[in-house]
Design goal:
Bound molecules: pyridoxal-5'-phosphate
Shape: globular
Distance between the termini: 52 Å
Strand content: 5-15%
Order of helices and strands: HEHEHEHEHEHEHHEHEHHEHHEHH
Oligomer: single chain
Radius of gyration: 20 Å
């Protein structure tokens, strides 16, 4: 019987490139190996080649699974029995799933009333102890750090460097697929762990001779939560793009370094720009992402409108999480859903669908 290659999860696919203890078991749900989809729409808009890295295709619906397989695997290796994270939703969904797989007790701290119902459902269904904190994400992160310091629980927020080890594999996949690093890499940025991880991956591949260059990194925030653009923390961050509703990024310094070393930049976008890009990406490219995830696409459109050229260049845009994570915001932006009811009759359906 012939065996075809089946993706084994990113730890087994890239183990020798990850800075984790050699005997770390792989706690995996098959994360990574996500689609890199060519966008005819955005390639047409820019006159270049634009590819979308679809991270919503990970097991719990966001790129957080990349960091989580690494963090939970190492936590298990170190003998942890419980794990904790602060979350705007996706980290907790991911941690809860990987903790369940590993047999650890997951403890989640979320800002009260600020996370989507789907993400809350994921954490609860996977068995997390969910504590809703009267405060914002930054308060939750401080508490997570404190709990990990004083109690026997593993902290798996992206301040845990092992998370970045897992997340950097997305860059490996991009280069493995395209044959080299792109000219530009665009993405949303919140706590800044992911941009830092991509940069780590690209520079590691360059050093290993697997790529001949590194891309210019451009990361995008929401106007109401744009500390990196403003150059100072934002005390009360606000945006519909809840996954990037961060006022004081944990990986601020790493992201600044990646920006500087790559000749990149940070830019802020309005919620309207972000939600419009989310809707257009779904209609034109068939890719449904959550609001925050569309920031890179919105950023490309804003850059082009401002006169920046991506012509003749290869651009990769990471879309970070699945659209099913927050259907409430998507439907609100969509507006009134047409309520078309027809008799059980083919001609009536054809007429209503505009075929005749
Ligand atoms: C976590 C997250 C982000 C932000 O990533 P950082 O590493 O915090 O910058 C963006 N989009 C989605 C969907 C996320 O879950």
């Amino acid at each position: 019987m012939s065996t075809t290659h089946q993706w084994r999860g990113l730890i087994e696919e890239y183990r020798e490139l990850l800075d984790i203890p050699a005997a770390t078991p792989a706690i995996t749900l098959g994360e990574g190996g996500t689609p890199l989809v060519h966008s005819e729409w955005l390639s047409g808009v820019t006159g270049g080649d634009v590819w979308i890295k679809v991270e919503g295709a990970n097991p719990t619906g966001s790129f957080k699974d990349r960091g989580m397989t690494a963090a939970i695997s190492v936590a298990v290796h170190e003998g942890a029995k419980a794990c904790v994270c602060a979350s705007t939703g996706n980290t907790s969904a991911s941690m809860a799933a990987y903790a369940a797989k590993a047999g650890l007790t997951p403890i989640v701290l979320v800002p009260d009333g600020k996370i989507s119902a789907s993400k809350m459902a994921q954490a609860l269904v996977h068995g997390a102890q969910v504590l809703r904190v009267r405060g914002n994400f930054d308060d939750c992160l401080k508490m997570s750090r404190g709990l990990a310091e004083h109690y026997p629980v593993a902290l798996v927020n992206s301040v845990n460097p092992v998370r970045l080890e897992g997340q950097k594999t997305a860059s490996f996949e991009v280069v493995d697929r395209l044959g080299d690093a792109p000219d530009f890499h665009l993405m949303p940025i919140g706590n800044a762990g992911n941009m830092s991880a991509y940069w780590l991956g690209y520079t590691q591949y360059l050093a290993a001779g697997k790529a001949t260059r590194t891309p210019v990194m451009r990361a995008f925030q929401a106007e109401g939560a744009a500390p990196l653009v403003l150059g100072r923390p934002v005390e009360h961050p606000e945006t519909r793009a809840t996954a990037i509703r961060i006022g004081n990024p944990a990986s601020w310094k790493l992201a600044e370094a990646a920006k500087a070393a790559s000749g990149g930049r940070f830019k802020a976008l309005s919620d309207d720009q972000i939600l419009a890009a989310q809707a257009e990406l779904a209609r034109r490219d068939g890719i449904f992402v959550e609001p925050a995830s569309a920031a890179g696409v919105a950023g490309l459109l804003a850059d082009v409108a401002a006169g920046d050229s991506y012509a003749g260049k290869v651009t990769v845009i990471t879309v970070t999480g699945h659209g099913l994570k927050d259907t409430v915001t998507a439907l609100e932006y969509f507006g009134e859903v047409p309520d078309v009811v027809v008799d059980a009759d083919i001609d009536a359906a054809a007429a209503a669908a505009g075929l005749i």
